[in-house]
Write a structure and sequence with these properties.
Blueprint (H helix, E strand, L loop, with lengths): L1 H16 L2 H30 L11 E8 L16 H10 L3 E16 L5 E11 L1 H5 L3 E4 L13 E5 H8 L9 E4 L2 E9 L14 E4 L2 H6 L3 H6 L6 E6 L5 H17 L5 H4 L1 E7 L8 H36 L1 H9 L4 H31 L21 H26 L4 H6 L3 H40 L10 E7 L10 H13 L4 E7 L8 E6 L8 E8 L3 H5 L3 E4 L14 E6 H8 L8 E5 L5 E10 L14 E5 L8 E7 L4 H14 L8 E3 H7 L2 H35 L1 H9 L4 H33 L12 H27 L3 H7 L1
Length: about 800
């Protein structure tokens, strides 16, 4: 058997060497199909299959998140479920199927320095419970924080290996050394090993501080620290050996129901249930969306691979026809149909090996435009095409399956025909029997191509509409400057003065038309809190909170529908009741058609119980790209009353040239002398970053549509050219009998028109089917958009005309004397 296999391989090599054109076309076709598929599998590998670094046995670790309870009115976008210290300890004590439970929050970017001058910015997580134990992280130096140290000494930190390198370079032991964090001298307790950067790959952390650090950096008393709830945003756990995820989740839900039942007035707790997601790979709130995005990617590249498969099968079938004489001779000399089939399969195996190599190169080329780009919301940017065992195995299997599946039929048919007829004539009757198969394959390629072209057009129009979304604000000539945590700015009591000084300093920069401060920028992610009417405090609803400084509405040019925005007197912290501005959508939801200005609401801030807030005005509606069809249920409050959030300068300028940018940086550094030089980010670029799914999928479809169009046009050309070559004698006779060129061209084009017509019809049906998968990613474009569908059909009509031009020209120029002589 081995000798036969090696003999077949040697025969296959000799055979393929005699047909370099066929080999080149087949390998390139296969490479494009396998390469596009391998590219998307590489994306899946990076985003879904690779666990976070530094966590041993990641399948025993799990995210613990919350979802709306059955029958709840809440949406996933409204979930904001912090856990208090007391509730956390009840969960930890009651869930004995867990060997560890921890809470953490991403506390933004903190400034760290070893000498007070060389400052770096590190994403920092505030942790509580057995954080490192639950994740199984081991130190590469020193030791890590323990569960019993969370409310102890706040002047300790754990750093990542990356931050250690940035701060200390190749210095020796760093555990026990002192660094300055936000102006406070603290001790490096240890270094988290294994490349660990936190359990969330979308926001890699570089430093960890105990929960008691709230007292050190934000000025809370120890009693305030234990009473806070909004900083316990995320939970992670580790299952005990033998415990199943479903059992652990049921236990956590039972414990949480007991906690919620002890406080019947807290309606929000009754509207959510815990959810345990094992395997630290995808942030829980993004898992469904990311899988949906990659599912669409998979469908798209599967269609491209289908075109490549059909092209390979067509090439093999046509090659079989041209080699009928050779195969017939081998059959006449005693070769069995099985032996002929094995030799063809050996050739397919060689083509598969070459196609895999070319496919990996094509995958790398396709991935180049996506390197450093986000293809899914809430996930890190892609690192280009990363080769590993999984990707290589996938490429080999895809290539082998393609050629086995689509090369098996031509191989089986290669030796099964009328031997005497094949030796006597060129096998025209057999050719006619297979012509229908080739036409069907070509029509299928055209259908897939038009499907992809239509989907690409739908997404191109969607992205254009998203860039033109009416946010309610004027984002042209707006930019933001991230100032980080208020801890960077000084003590909480001094923050209003620092805010004023920053605004005044930047406003004096030549070319700046206006400046204000908010929490994260006009397009930033939002936090929601519970609000209620004073007369019905038990009936709470969720609304988005947006802390801003006076003047913010003028800077972003968000007009008021009624009432007035904040005044300069609203800088004052601790105002009672808290002044607020609500959006028109929230005003309608809460108050209906009644008068709004002057009404009072209760804000459940989680620290000191409900606080009263009085409506000063109602703004126009605000829409953001992640939910463009739904105006935000949001309200604005003075930033001085809620200073403990990352803050951002919002600047409006005539133009953000180098002089203006330099002036803004200098103005900021005059107030914050030790701050890292801030970067200026135009809001238009942030708008593009707000819908990475549509942009990435649109680019993938544009690229793969071009490849599919090329493959389908080559397939159409091959079928029409081969059919024309087989009918060469017929065309010669017709010309000899006086047929005009138009008549010959009509015969060729009629064949092509039938294929293109069937393919176009199938493609439009396929486009509608694919548009159903894209429905939640389309904006301002109907699933059946006439412009997109017509554009796709028109584009391929032009491509088809170009593909048919040379076969038609060859048929018209057929020499009747030469044709009749050859006959």
């Amino acid at each position: 058997m081995l000798r036969d296999f090696l003999a077949d391989l040697r025969t296959a090599v000799r055979s393929l060497r005699r047909e370099p054109g066929f080999v080149l076309l087949a390998v390139l076709t296969l490479g494009v199909g396998v390469g596009s598929t391998a590219t998307v599998f590489g994306m899946v590998n990076q985003l879904l299959l690779r666990p976070v670094s530094g966590v041993p046995d990641p399948d025993r670790a799990a995210y613990v998140t919350f979802e709306p309870a059955p029958g709840s009115h809440l949406r996933h976008t409204e979930l904001n479920t912090p856990v208090s210290v007391a509730d956390f300890e009840k969960l930890e004590a009651g869930a004995d199927l867990l060997s560890g439970l921890a809470a953490y929050t991403n506390d933004g970017s903190w400034q760290v320095s070893t000498d007070g001058q060389h400052t770096v910015v590190a994403v920092t997580e505030l942790i509580y419970g057995d954080y490192f134990g639950a994740l199984g992280v081991r130190p590469s130096e020193g030791r890590l924080l323990r569960a019993d140290e969370m409310l102890g000494d706040p002047r300790v930190v754990v750093v990542s290996e990356k931050l250690r390198q940035e701060l200390f370079g190749n210095a020796g032991q760093v555990a026990g050394r002192t660094v300055q964090v936000e102006g406070q001298s603290v001790t490096v307790l240890g270094v988290a090993g294994g490349g660990f950067q936190g359990p969330r790959r979308d926001i890699p952390a570089q430093m960890w501080v105990p929960y008691s650090a709230l007292a050190l950096y934000n000025g809370f008393s120890p009693e305030d620290v234990e009473a806070r709830t909004e900083d316990m945003q995320f939970l992670v756990a580790r299952l005990r050996p033998g415990a199943r995820p479903a059992q652990a989740e049921a236990q956590i839900r039972s414990v949480y129901q007991g906690i919620a039942g002890a406080d019947p007035d807290d309606k929000y707790r009754h509207d959510v249930v815990p959810l345990l997601l094992p395997g630290l790979r995808v942030p829980p709130e993004q898992a469904g969306h990311i899988r949906a995005s990659l599912r669409v990617f998979g469908v798209v590249v599967g269609l491209v691979l289908l075109i490549a498969c059909a092209n390979v099968a067509t090439l093999l079938l046509m090659r079989n026809v041209t080699r009928r004489g050779l195969v017939a001779t081998r059959r006449a000399l005693g070769a069995s149909p099985g032996r002929v089939a094995r030799s063809h399969l050996a050739e397919s195996a060689l083509l598969a090996a070459l196609g895999t190599a070319v496919g990996l190169l094509v995958a790398w080329l396709i991935a180049v435009p996506f390197a450093g780009q986000r293809v899914a919301r809430g996930m890190p940017a892609l690192a280009g095409f990363r080769m590993d065992v999984r990707v290589l195995t996938f490429a080999v299997v895809a290539s082998a399956v393609t050629l086995v599946a689509f090369g098996a039929v031509p191989a089986m048919l290669a030796g099964r025909f009328d031997l005497s007829g094949a030796l006597r004539v060129a096998g025209g009757s057999d050719t006619r029997r297979m012509a229908g198969v080739r036409r069907i394959m070509s029509a299928g390629q055209i259908g897939v191509c038009i499907t992809l072209l239509t989907a690409a057009a739908l997404l191109v129009r969607t992205v254009r509409n998203l860039y033109a979304i009416q946010t309610g604000m004027s984002i042209d000539r707006l930019a933001t400057v991230d100032l980080g945590q208020p801890a960077n700015l000084g003590a909480p009591s001094a923050l209003p003065d620092v805010y004023r000084e920053l605004v005044a300093g930047v406003k004096n920069v030549p070319g700046v038309d206006g400046v204000a401060i908010d929490a994260g920028g006009p397009l930033a992610s939002r936090s929601s809190i519970a609000i209620a009417l004073p007369e019905r405090p038990d009936r709470t609803m969720s609304a988005l909170i947006r802390p801003v400084t006076p003047g913010w509405f003028d800077v972003v040019q968000l007009p008021m529908a009624r009432g007035a925005p904040f005044r300069d007197g609203d800088w004052r912290p601790g105002s009672t009741p808290v002044p607020m501005v609500v959006t028109s959508a929230l005003a309608q939801r809460v108050f209906g058609s009644t008068e709004v200005v002057g009404r009072t609401l209760l804000l459940n801030l989680g620290m000191e119980g409900p606080q009263e807030a009085r409506v000063l005005g109602v703004s126009r509606d605000v829409r953001l790209p992640d939910e463009p069809d739904r105006p935000l249920d949001a309200f604005f409050v003075p930033l001085s009353s809620f200073p403990f959030k990352p803050v951002t300068l919002v600047v409006r300028a005539q133009a953000f040239d180098q002089q203006v940018e330099s002036g803004i940086r200098q103005a900021v550094q005059r107030v914050l002398a030790n701050a890292v030089p801030p970067a200026l980010t135009p809001l238009t670029s942030q708008l593009g970053d707000a819908f990475p799914d549509q942009r990435a999928l649109g680019r993938v479809l544009e690229l793969l549509s071009a490849l599919a169009t090329a493959l389908a046009s080559v397939g159409l050309y091959s079928v029409i050219a081969f059919s024309g070559a087989q009918r060469r004698r017929e065309f010669g006779i017709r010309v000899a009998l006086g047929a005009e060129n138009v008549r010959i061209a009509r015969l060729v084009l009629a064949d092509a028109a039938a294929i293109v017509g069937i393919g176009t019809g199938a493609g439009l049906v396929g486009a509608y089917t694919l548009s159903i998968l894209l429905a939640d990613r389309l904006y301002g474009v109907a699933q059946v958009d006439p412009i997109s569908y017509a554009a796709a059909a028109a584009v391929f009509a032009l491509v088809a005309a170009a593909a048919c031009w040379m076969p038609t020209r060859a048929a018209i120029r057929a020499d009747p004397l030469e044709t009749l002589r050859d006959a």
